[in-house]
Amino acid sequence: MKTERDGDVLEESVQEPDLYSPVSPLPQDQAISTYFEEKVPIPEDDRAKMFSFRKLWAFTGPGFLMSIAYLDPGNIESDLQSGAKAGFKLLWVLLGSTIIGLLLQRLAARLGVVTGMHLAEVCNRHYPTVPRIILWLMVELAIIGSDMQEVIGCAIAFNLLSVGRIPLWAGVLITIIDTFVFLFLDKYGLKKLEAFFGFLIPIMAISFRYKYVRVAPDQAEVLKGMFLPYCSGCGAEQLKQAVGIVGAVIMPHNVYLHSALVKSRDVDRGNKKEVKEANKYYFIESTIALFVSFLINVFVVAVFAEAFYDKTNIEVNAKCNASGSPHTDLFPLDNSTLQVDIFKGGVVLGCFFGPAALYIWAIGILAAGQSSTMTGTYSGQFVMEGFLNLRWSRFARVLLTRSIAIFPLSWVAVFQDVRHLTSMNDFLNVLQSMQLPLALIPILTFTSLTSLMNDFANGLVWKISGGVLILLVCAINMYFVVVYVTALNSTVLYVFSALLSIAYLSFVIYLVWICLIALGVSRLDFTGSVRFPPAVLIDEQPEFDS
């Protein structure tokens, strides 16, 4: 294939790989553009400084967009359930999950900066056709599942804010329609779009911080739960909740998203110093962004731990009845432990702390749902374009994913009640957990290849620690899936799940096999069919005039 640029003709060879094509990283201007046409310029700084706030500001944006996935309605529900079921005892799990998430996001950002391609594009170039299609379908499934959770959160928020006047099915439709409206913001410039997302994060922070101040949890207990990795008196229910926290925090499509978002800055990949600098500032920005998201998650856990840990249904029923709440029937007259979700969480806050607490909670949930549903849409766009090399408009992309999500949600919203709608989150969390290895294994594989990452490939420490972390996260999430399936109590579902598990594990083992070879265990390449591209140093990559 020939491409022309400024009168010069460049020859590019394209071939179908046995397993990996010997394709070098594309020059920056030749890489497929899947983000906005606009590139944010990086200011020049002639002074030899280790750190520049001007440059940090220029790189600020992708990390905060990525961090929104750590604040979606699925995470908020996991937080409130953790506080209500285990008190402050699982805050250390939230902290550890966020740190692991930061390390994985670092790998995603480095892949995008160094290669000029995001993870879906790299998978498209280096995996054979059949595994590539399977991987794409599974990632799309994860995105649709996440999309459904976000729409559920927004629909519940609209219902709470309108005191039930907006039914759930109408909330679902409003969320789907207003996403199109918000996506038109990118027409006004990338920084303005990022500023809009940046506006939604403070709304969440203020809403949930208000609850934190209002409830005034014991600060000593908060710190103890955060830094003491122990859960005294915890049983199977708390263990399941701990696993659920890991699954809610570390989301598969977020790895694909972040590797694409970092392409929005004007970085010369032919200049090793600029690439190294970009990696540094992106990591700093991601650290700040995830620290903010962690604090917001802590606010939610601490509020429900202080106010509702070990509360019984009959206690809550009496309090709601005394406050005149119309939702008293949500809490049966028994001494079983209170079970909460996003909807019940708002109701109990209103019962104990007044109507203002309910409305502020709903505003926070609405901000979380609206922001995460838009970033989820961008994730879907990047994944589809990268894996299939399709160039769909954002409108078409949103229409497709929302159409897939709307049918099951609308059916439940119209014919069932809010309890059935929120209970879908358990199934969707399991769906997300199953997709996680399909993002983590490829990102470790490709960031470990010297031939792809050049001088920025993972070192031995990162290869080992990355492998251990991914193994740990995948094992935790598989446990969550097993617990969910065994609770179904259906022989037919058991058989179906067993057959599905065999196919799923076979594919995961295939990805692990490729990953181990990329990590240097060449003896596993029994047939000699795994070929990696030759190394190309960054300084030797061709540079083009802009």
TrEMBL record:
Membrane topology, as annotated: Multi-pass membrane protein
List the GO terms this entry assigns under cellular component, sorted alphabetically.
late endosome membrane; lysosomal membrane; plasma membrane
- Where's it mainly located? membrane
InterPro entries, per the entry: NRAMP_fam
Subcellular location, record wording: Late endosome membrane; Lysosome membrane
State a single Pfam family of this protein: Nramp
Q: Does the keyword Secreted apply?
A: no
- List the GO molecular function terms: cadmium ion transmembrane transporter activity; iron ion transmembrane transporter activity; manganese ion transmembrane transporter activity
Location of region: Disordered: 1-25
Q: Locate the transmembrane regions by residue number.
A: 91-113, 166-185, 282-305, 342-368, 395-414, 434-452, 464-487, 493-521
Q: Keywords in UniProt for this one? A: Ion transport, Iron, Iron transport, Lysosome, Membrane, Transmembrane, Transmembrane helix, Transport
For this protein, the record's NCBIfam families field holds:
nramp, Nramp_1
Query: What PANTHER family does its record include?
Result: NATURAL RESISTANCE-ASSOCIATED MACROPHAGE PROTEIN 2, SOLUTE CARRIER PROTEIN FAMILY 11 MEMBER
Instruction: Name the family.
Output: Belongs to the NRAMP family.
Identification of the protein by name? Natural resistance associated macrophage protein
Species in which this protein is naturally found: Pimephales promelas (Fathead minnow)
Q: What is the lineage of its organism?
A: Eukaryota, Metazoa, Chordata, Craniata, Vertebrata
